[in-house]
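Please produce the structure of this protein holding 2-acetamido-2-deoxy-beta-D-glucopyranose.
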Amino acid sequence: MVNWTSRTSRWLLQCSLWSAVFWSVSGFDINRNDNLAVYWGQDSSGKQQQLSFYCQDDVYDMIPLAFLYVFFGIGGEPMIDFANICSSSANGVFPGTQLANCSFMAQDIQDCQNKGKVVTISLGGATGDVGFANSSQAKDFADTIWNQFLGGTSDIRPFGDAVLDGVDLDIEGGLPTFYGDFVNQLRSHTDNAKKQYYVTAAPQCPFPDANLGQVLNASRFDAVYVQFYNNYCGLNAPDQFDFSVWDEWARTASPNPDVKIFIGAPGSATAAGQGFVDIAQLQQYAMSAQATYDTFGGVMLWDASDAYDNNRYDKAIKTSMSANGREVSNPTSGSGNGGSGGGNTTSGGTSPTFPGSTSPGPSGSTCLVQQPLGEELLWSGGQIRTSADIRALFTSQSVRMMARQSRDVLKSFGEIARRRVSSLVLRDSTSTIVRPKYKLHRRVASL
Ligand SMILES: *[C@@H]1O[C@H](CO)[C@@H](O)[C@H](O)[C@H]1NC(C)=O
Ligand SMILES: *[C@@H]1O[C@H](CO)[C@@H](O)[C@H](O)[C@H]1NC(C)=O
Ligand SMILES: *[C@@H]1O[C@H](CO)[C@@H](O)[C@H](O)[C@H]1NC(C)=O
Ligand SMILES: *[C@@H]1O[C@H](CO)[C@@H](O)[C@H](O)[C@H]1NC(C)=O
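Below is the modeled complex.
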């Protein structure tokens, strides 16, 4: 727990036209509806470049590395493969395993992360040898993933000192059982970490997904990249394409009421058996979903090599989404800020408001201005030292605080700081989300 009285950080509050505040520790914001997730690793086009090549511009937001395709290989360790960039055969393995040593990719990964992109390890794939025999094996595997790829420690770190931002489940075979145990165990690590981690899944469009349906109903996901291709319900079949099924799941069944649904699309005509549509059609789908569904989070493309070489299909869809992009709260949570998957929110788990901030008050025109770290937090001439002070600020401004990340564990502002929430949005009493203006570029946890 954060002890505010020991803070040396100084923030200055200053008036402006802005009635709300946005703090972010990275460029990435899971609550926007214009994020682009692009799979990298399987060299779908045959011209795959190294990872950092695709991070040169602002086009990609989330990059699942595809794939960790064997859960329990030789020596009981997983196997990863990134085609022409890193593989067991070309790059050497950790002793006694067939797990490729891709630690030369650490800098590439960090380059992408430093540009605000989220880089995750994707488990599975179409040819994956995956699945669990029982609950304890699933939990142990979560520990392995945590130690080898995320914030844990292990002699085996396939990406060296790079710490990935989370896990994607692209499970397309094996038994659907025990993935809930896997994700929940993984969350037990990530929820206690200072870094923000993301868990995503890539089900196919027929609902419910045969492989991921169970875990989607059982665990908290931040985003779901629905594969609207290679199926009757793909983008190429407008009569069958149905985003609303996934929207309804997100609103009514997902343990994380803020889960974002992405439209997954092939990046080129050859990227998938069927489902590819020209860019104008994809833009139409995305902009329609953006306008219609609060659960829409953006577009997912398979894969980077295809999309990049297809006349920058990736950039074209990102640009059109960004034109109308904004932060959106899901309807379930917009009126409920419900704890995602257990745990308490700021005010007992049901209210969207910070304690005491519901009653209408003078319309605030005050906003926080980021000051260099190492100074104190000031507001209206008074110091803000405790979370109660911050609650008072919120009350006086009659803003509704929407802690859009990790809301299930937010109990106080101290909690927010401790968990390094990546995005904290304040709303005015009319529920209008105010555009982000100020960003905290350094870790809240380092305050
Ligand atoms: C992995 O590769 C790096 C160089 O990329 C090397 O320094 C390291 O020793 C290798 N680790 C093992 C266990 O072979
Ligand atoms: C779980 O499955 C693994 C792999 O088959 C096995 O080694 C282990 O004994 C099982 N554990 C339990 C508790 O059944
Ligand atoms: C998940 O929950 C939804 C809504 O209750 C249900 O329609 C769906 O069948 C469930 N999925 C599985 C795999 O049970
Ligand atoms: C959630 O908050 C309520 C009301 O403050 C409290 O009674 C309950 O014990 C809390 N639950 C957890 C899991 O912290």
